[in-house]
User: Fold this.
Amino acid sequence: MKLIDIPTAPPAGLKKKDIKKKTDQIARAIAERQHLLYAESKKSVLIVLQGMDASGKDGATRKIFKYCSPIAINAYPFKKPTEKEFAHDFLWRVHKLVPAKGEITIFNRSHYEDILIQRVYKWIDEETVNKRVDAINSFEKLLIEDNNTTILKFYMHISKDRQKEKLQERIDNPLKNWKHNDSDWEQREQWDEYMSCYQDVIERCNVAPWIVAAVDARWYRDYFIATKVLETLQALEFNLPIIPKKPN
Assistant:
């Protein structure tokens, strides 16, 4: 799976209005399955949204999970590690945030930052990268096999031109100006290096396989990811607990 060969735009022939309506229906269905997941409390779901700045991780989270009960869904944005987090192994801050049984957790960025941005800027060497790849694969295997966690990993596939438009929008639109960060433009200058690192991550960190989501069009992004989430939840079998009646 070569990223350079995968389109970032939606397939031809789709109607935006129809797709947005379908997405809303899917979001409601996701909430229904979340209720069963929580009621049974024997399985969990971890959803990783990973991609370049302005690829739409926040927006996808809002649109897809808007009908879910907040009691059993969590979303965490991974930013620069704190001093305390830097003092531990790189997975320390991640492991404590994975979903408990009955929960859905969304990672906005994730443990993959530690073999992406740190690798792009040469803060770690290739030997460390290889060790961390092995650690991530073992970590995800542990979650799947030991905690009955289903992991969905989405690479938010945005074109370089579309990213520039969305970053500029953060400057021009007062309602989005709070999102503007000069470092996003600096990282954009390392685009080719990031793409190379993402390609390597997709190829080597596949205990839970990556799903490439075309995100140039926000309405299609939401529909595509929501569809995959619902399919995954529908494939899980739930046996709801039955409370025995008290004898008369």
